[in-house]
Amino acid sequence: MSVRILVSDPLPEGAVAILRGTPGITVEERRGLSEPELLPLVADIDAWVVRGATKVTRRLIEAAPKLRWVARAGAGIDNIDAAAARERGILVLNVPGANAVAVAELVFGLLLALFRQIPAADASLKRGEWAKARFQGRELRGKTIGILGLGKIGRAVAQRARAFEMRCVGHDPLLSEEATRALGVEPLPMKELLPRSEILTLHVPLSPETRGMIGAGEIARLPRGAVIVNAARGGLVDEAAVLEALERGHLSGAVFDVFAQEPPGGSPLVQRENVVATPHIGAATQEAQEAVGEEIVTLLLGKLRESGAIGESGPRTATPSRNPAHKKISR
């Protein structure tokens, strides 16, 4: 009997082709559907591939009696009711770090935009102005960057920070001091990292333990004039506390790619001149999406083979990737 896989968010054509080219699998692509629209579709599926748009709710999980695997093409799984999945014995798969280069590059793109006032300078020039004297900026060189989370993305950030001749301090409870120092990062506990961090960047998953991990108290411990970067998950940072610290000058700026509520609507934080923000585009590069797509379907097929749901024969149409973004960055 064929294994039925629902793909309810956009995946690269190559990733879908790998699934379709695998004997014993039937793939249905249905994108942009609401929960009521998804309910009849999940009744007979064995596996489900999503990105961030589809919400895999408890109601949908309960309506899918055959569902055994949910594969998230990306890192965060906050759009999946993981508790409901666990109760059913459903395996939730994800590929943290497949988009590491894309996110790390965006971090520095946002920082350079903030430090050199690039958005404002560009808008000024487009208005026909030549306000050169108005746009005196700052350099990244010599600044101390505090990195919370030294998984694949945090490591990619540290690597690029060193290229900018920045000092790197970091905190990751899952990494030994020796391993942290091998990355060119000085290991510090949180209470010591915050006062050292002229730039604080977060690269941790969103969980009950990390939600709101940077609030008013943590911001107060940063040096005056510090900058906060959140290109990880919305909800890690108390955005109201950031706004208050910007208004009183304790923070000199902030950059956000993710928000507790997306889209953030008319958030006063986004409107500030000393905030550079983007609409959750950290992983939105062609290279990253190809890497994420290929890695998640490869992982899913491996689990299907391990379970005996499909045979050992490989995909009929898969070809090795030549994408440099697919190179593994070891944790």
Automatic annotation (TrEMBL):
Tell whether NAD is among the UniProt keywords.
yes
Q: Which GO terms describe its molecular function?
A: NAD binding; oxidoreductase activity, acting on the CH-OH group of donors, NAD or NADP as acceptor
InterPro entries documented for this protein: D-isomer_2_OHA_DH_cat_dom, D-isomer_DH_CS, D-isomer_DH_NAD-bd, NAD(P)-bd_dom_sf
Q: Which domain of life is it from?
A: Bacteria
What keyword terms does UniProt attach to this protein?
NAD, Oxidoreductase
Q: Where is this region: Disordered?
A: 308-331
Q: Residues in domain D-isomer specific 2-hydroxyacid dehydrogenase NAD-binding?
A: 108-282
Limits of the D-isomer specific 2-hydroxyacid dehydrogenase catalytic domain: 5-298
Task: Fetch the SUPFAM superfamilies from UniProt.
Answer: Formate/glycerate dehydrogenase catalytic domain-like, NAD(P)-binding Rossmann-fold domains
**Matches recorded under PROSITE patterns:** D_2_HYDROXYACID_DH_3
PANTHER family, per the entry: FORMATE DEHYDROGENASE 1 (PTHR42938)
Family statement drawn from the similarity comment of this UniProt entry: Belongs to the D-isomer specific 2-hydroxyacid dehydrogenase family.
Q: What is this protein called?
A: Hydroxyacid dehydrogenase
This chain's source organism reads Eiseniibacteriota bacterium
